[in-house]
Amino acid sequence: MKRVHQVLSAACLGVIFLSASLSIHAQVGSKPGYNVTPSARDWQDLAKLPDWSGTWNPKITDQDQQIKTNMPPWKPEVAEIIKFQLAEEKAGRPTPLFVNCLPEGMPAWMLISHNSMEVLFTPGRVTMLGESDGNRLRRIYTDGRKHPEDPDPTFHGHSIGHWEGDTLVVDTVAILPQAIFAISEAAGVPHNGDIRITERIRLVGKDELHDELVITASHLLTKPWKTTRISFRQRAQKFDIVEGVCLEGSFRPAKDAKGFDIYEPIPMDIGGNRIPPQ
Fold first, then answer.
1. Which tens digits make up the pLDDT trace of 187-232?
2. Strand partners, 221
3. Are 125 and 158 in contact (CB under 8 A)?
4. For the structural domain made of 55-239, what CATH number should be given?
5. 248: which of 29, 149, 203, 234 is 20 to 30 A away, CA to CA?
6. What are residue 198's DSSP bridge partners?
């Protein structure tokens, strides 16, 4: 009888452990981003999301208008820098904010882009791809994960999102303090840390995408700043995004001593100007 009780106890424990294992697997399985192979249902569910296909071009005139009508609430010392930079830009002497091959990063990624973008939906993730400097790759995790407790900061930060109807709500933290908070390609400063960006991205009409941003940056702003950026859709194949390679214009095709195709640096004068052929 004692042996029977031992067998039954072991069997009960086995059922408990099996049930727990199945429960954990079911929980994890519902979150494809956690190294779990997406199911056919996960892929089918993507059809329920809004159509963000095609190529998206930023509405540059709206970006320019925002500078005139919706300036961020800069702290006084930052406002002086921005005022000087805008004056220099108008005078044809733009501040070289993005000439060093570093990614534009967030929030400049969504605020000042003049380049096209594609948006891809896969189970547990939204991926944004752009042209620009070849580093325009943004991942927004929609699999239910939280921000890491001790994240490794990056130029684009750590973004998690969820859907509220047809609106993608995104929260971004862990952005490198060196990333530029820019309102134009020649006006902006490093955010210096402690920045958080909340976005609500949605279709307005058939071919217009609105990104409503709320940016909190305690080192630069006196209060959170709200702004909207608009992109419009291009469906024709000729509007596909192209490869962007940083400093490609600083090299030219050549042949090495063995006849292999290579790139060689183009001689530059002071200020980065090319030296004309002699």
1. 999 999 999 999 999 999 999 999 999 999 999 999 999 999 999 9
2. 74
3. no
4. 2.40.128.20
5. 234
6. 171, 214
Question: Three-class SS of residue 14?
Answer: helix
Per DSSP, the three-state class of 127 is strand
Q: Could you tell me if 251 and 264 are in contact, meaning their C-beta atoms sit under 8 angstroms apart?
A: yes
Q: Which residue bears the tokens 């919706």?
A: 70
Q: What does residue 266 show for φ and ψ, rounded to 5 degrees?
A: -90, 125
Name the CA dihedral angle for 66, 68, 74, 80, rounded to a multiple of 10 degrees: 140
Residue closest to 62 by CA, chosen among 227, 233, 234, 240: 227
Q: What is the pLDDT of residues 79-89, one digit of tens each?
A: 999 999 999 99
Domain boundaries, the chain: 18-48, 55-239
Radius of gyration over alpha carbons of the chain, in Å? 25
CB 33 within 8 A of CB 124: yes
> For residues 3 and 127, what is the distance between their CA atoms, to the nearest angstrom?
58
The CA distance from 199 to 121, in Å, is: 17
CB 110 within 8 A of CB 199: yes
Please enumerate in sequence order all residues whose Cβ is within 8 A of that of 131, keeping only pairs 6 or more positions apart, or say none. Answer: 115, 116, 117, 241, 242, 243, 244
Q: Which of 258, 234, 23, 271 is nearest to 118 (CA)?
A: 234
The residues facing 141 across adjacent strands are 125, 160
Question: Structure pTM?
Answer: 0.80
List, for residues 138-168, the tens digit of each pLDDT value.
999 999 999 999 999 999 999 999 999 999 9
